[in-house]
Amino acid sequence: MNSFRYLAPRSVDEAxxxxxxxxxxxxVVAGGTGLxxxxxxxxxxxxALIGLGALPGLDGLxxxxxxxxxxxxxxHQAVATSPLVAEAAPLLADAFARTATPRIRNVATVGxxxxxGDPNQDAPVALLALNAEVxxxxxxxxxxxxxxxxxxxxxxxxxxxxELLLEVNAALPPPxxxxxxxKFLPRSADDYATVSAAAVxxxxxxxxxxxxxxxxxxxxxxxxxxxxxxxxxGQPPSAELxxxxxxxxxxxxxxxxxxxxxxxYKRAMVPVxxxxxxxxxxxxxxxxx
Amino acid sequence: MQxxxxxxxxxxxxxxxxxxxxARNRPRGGSVAAGADNRDIRGDRxxxxxxxQRITLTVNGQKHELEVPTSRTLIDCIRYDLGLTGSVEGCGxxxxxxxxxxxxxxxxxxxxxxxxxxxxxxxxxxEGLAKDGQLDPVQQAFMDYGGFQCGICTSGQIMAAxxxxxxxxxPTPDQVKEWMMGNLCRCTGYYKIMESILQAAQAEAAQ
Lengths: 289, 207
Prior knowledge:
The complex is a heterodimer of chains A (289) and B (207).
Chain A: E1 5-7, H1 12-22, E2 26-29, H2 35-40, E3 48-51, E4 61-64, E5 67-71, H3 76-80, H4 83-88, H5 90-97, H6 102-105, H7 110-116, H8 123-129, E6 133-138, E7 141-146, H9 147-150, E8 151-153, E9 156-157, E10 164-171, E11 177-183, E12 196-204, E13 207-216, E14 223-224, H10 226-232, H11 239-247, H12 263-287
Parallel strand pairs in A: 1-3, 2-3
Antiparallel strand pairs in A: 4-5, 5-10, 6-7, 6-10, 8-9, 11-12, 12-13, 13-14
Helix pairs in contact in A: 5-8, 10-11, 11-12
Chain B: H1 16-25, H2 32-40, E1 52-59, E2 62-69, H3 74-81, E3 100-103, E4 106-109, E5 122-124, H4 137-144, H5 154-167, H6 173-180, H7 190-206
Parallel strand pairs in B: 1-5
Antiparallel strand pairs in B: 1-2, 3-4, 3-5
Helix pairs in contact in B: 4-7
């Protein structure tokens, strides 16, 4: 990799100052599991790296009313093994626990994962199904935007060169909700998904009151599936209904062919895994009663 | 390709094989560190000034202060700057697990971590496992139960297994499989590795 300056700010303010000065030439690095690989391949050649390793207070998980706050520097392993997450948002624990290997999860962070903008990642799919919002900071102030607008394209997000992602807030489903995360892995357990699907269902008095579905590895970003959600809302759950809703997701899938499957194969697998995610979410929602 | 934004694309082709051969043939000046420096500029020989930085690493209980190029990976720093060649680089992209070492008690891939990112950290490598001439129970079990064949992956396997037993002293076979899934063995000696780890856990419990 090319030579670069390494800057290790000791506070968020100092980091934002560095970004304001040289954000155009610098990249921010947390765990580095994505960025260092890209630098080794000369895909990214920053003049400077701003390392967040010494920044206090940006990690940690907290439940605030109906929201789960995930600090940007929280590691995947911390989310995957958190009793709080397992209880409040089991699909999130599943998604983080199924990312790469324990060794990568020890290092890769929540914020790093989101700004990396790789559509094959697990966490964004589950976070989309939880209506997550990201908080970005710059010298000019803070802004919060929905994850769905933050993720823009392959490896492209709405973050600006002078901004730092501080935290993600996920809306926790109500206690009677059922949720699930499915990851199709035909090759090895540490692989990216061929396709993935997350679902959250709330069933009350025999009717679906809330439905949230997201899919991954099948478009330039992880996607919500509004048509499938609309089809489910207000209906009594049945196997046919779940199948019909899942079938609508085929139309929004726009995957690339790669070693994990051809585009055609992935498009065919999307409704299959959405249906399985819905079936498991429904079974878990029913079990709550 | 808007996502590249401010990122500068590599304009010079990576010399690949030729660059690697040239780097290998260059005189090493009698020190392994010179060889490692050559690796950093491989394929980029027009630009040889390396930005360096002072860091402190505590490796196997011993504190080292050293100056490293910012682009030095932790595995290269440990191998070439400190001469601890028990850890090896396999895939170089964080997948195979051969370079597994413990950073502040947690296992990491040292091939995709920069030495400057580990500044101030406490690092444990395979060289630090044996105490007072006694092998670590994991090392002993790998020998007793044939947990290796060609040996390339072994130091990574043992460090990952050590980390497992530090976190979960009595793992189930499924927990061993889950934990070790990122440590690949091309000899596919997985059953013997599993057996070695389970036996090491038993031996430690009996102590």
